[in-house]
Amino acid sequence: MKSVRLLAATLAVFGFVLAVPAQAQTVDLSKTSCKEFLASGKDGIALIWAWLYGYYSDQDADPIVDFGKLTSQGQKLAEGCAKAPDKDVITIAEPIYEKK
Fold this sequence. Notes:
mainly alpha
């Protein structure tokens, strides 16, 4: 449902507002390198994992969070980013999070 995306987006925005300096309150993941993503720390990585999970979820899906899937996809993202630190996060995320 829309509420899943809204919740994920709200949590991500709230987390970034608290976690990053004032000049960096907007994060464009299509312009954020994997190196920057991996350097964002445990909280930053977790927030991005959760945001991507919600963003790529089916709009009509039930409001259920599968933490195993969230973690599995997040680990794949981290591994992909470690192999390609100069690529942007979205380029690495799309094949991992796309609906199958």
